[in-house]
Write a structure and sequence with these properties.
Length: 253
Amino acid sequence: MANFPTHLAVGIVGSGALATLTLASGMVAPGDIVTLAFAGAVGSILPDIDLGNSRPSQALFTGLGIAIAFAVLFNVGYRYSIAEMWVIWTATFLAVRFIGHNIFHHLSHHRGIFHSLLAGLMFASLTAIFYVRGLGHGAGLAWLAGSFVLFGFLIHLVLDEIYSVDFNNERIKSSFGTALKLADFRHPGASLAMMAAAAVAFVFAPPVHDFLGVVGTKSLWVAFQDRLLPNDHNWFGITAELQNTVLAWLGKR
């Protein structure tokens, strides 16, 4: 499979290219493309959270530990002294970061259910929920960010499949077919649980029709087509000048 730097680099490049398209077509404001590209880059490393010692897994549980610790503190911490609140926050963080991390990786398998399209759909819905309820954005931008996460997720799965082919020796590795899949059919219980989680996340996510309404408009695709290539194929404003120079040089000859 591809290593962490490769996944992250390809995810950043792919997400940056997609973010450029959304900006050129007028879907988002210039200030939003950075967060969208970041969402795609995060999505490109999410499938490896089931690797116990991987950086994506450690970062995910560190972030979850911090978020859950503050949520617990804000709900019950006012009843206690400052010293007790420090203890509550630290204990909650450590429980999620280490105990929760170990339990998760004891129950999960690498290239299992988190290496599937079902997991990508779940993470896309969770991203939309976070953008609306955590960051206060509208449903359209929230689902656009979720789409970027799913896009980065797909880049990761496809890249792992490509690395499963040994082009030098012209053979298919045994890992081929384990990266890009709808669900983990080796573990049907995990697949059913992920299907349920994805469905629940989608139900609690913001309405998707705002996003589909923007993506499906004819004006968006007309604007995209108009901006796709330079007018009159005059790249960077120098193509016509270069042509005139060449013609003048040929004329002198």
